[in-house]
Design brief:
The chain has 321 residues and is mostly helical. The chain is 73% helix and 2% strand. A two-stranded antiparallel ribbon has the order 1-2. The protein starts with a helix and ends in a 20-residue tail after the last helix.
Length: 321
Amino acid sequence: MRSSAVTGLWFAILSAAAFGVSGPFAKSLLEIGWSPGAAVGVRIGGAALVLLVPVLVALRGRWSTLRGNGLTLTIYGVVAIALCQFFYFSAVQRMSVGVSLLLEYLAPILIVGWLWIRSHRAPNRLTAAGSVAAMLGLLLVLDLTGEQRLDPIGVLFGLSAAVCLAVFFLMSAKVDDDLPPLIMAGGGMVVGALTILVLGLLGVMPFTFEFQDVVLAGWQTHWMVPVLGLVLISTVLSYVTGIIAARGLGSKVASFVGLTEVMFAVLASWLMLGELPGPIQLVGGALIVAGVALVRLDELRRPKISAHTQPNAVEPVPRPS
């Protein structure tokens, strides 16, 4: 069990790092005139195409698995993938990226609260302390200085993105050997891509493309470079490893480790866009790590209730009906 948790931790860090570089890749496309809808559509649609063949191979002789988990894949694709992206970019259109990201990453707190409601047990002091430390760390890493204009609709979009992100962690932690991570990620991407296509055709998420060179890490390169980065690294790799991590760590711990995405995003922005992180952000990163460590320590200190208790099921995780 302990080796499974360690493996899950490494996968969670890899997933967070892969998610973290999506910002610089997407920003380079937005700066040449791409719309947020176009960037999200290409990101998820491209990932669906990449995963389609491996998923079809994995489904050989197991089509009943797909039929039996149709509702799970639909909810996962629509909510955890498509709507999460849509709400986040909608928040960014109305507020700063920092405020939008902070609102989205309230997801771990929502998960702690949800598990509290489900289990009728208040979180232990270590988990509570870890929650506070991680949120304070986020505030420092995002370095929200100056006056921030909080658009009420933008706040609603940001909170909606947080709910969708919480759904991602909760559903990814669902232990089901009949639904491998590759099939769950690939199937979810297909559903998400179709959802975004419908939103685009309805005009809810307009698609605008510009095909010219972009600037990354101080040098000019083809626009396909960030597109491939978004699809292969920030989507295919991040979602598959994220699902594996959540199954090994549980939704709560995986979501807190996912907070390190902000640190990786800051580092990637520094290396790829020349945005140097300041001392305050480094202190915030240390607080995030401390918060994750406290939550993980709380999990390790709890006694095993029974032999069949899973390491990622210390807290009850809701299963879609």
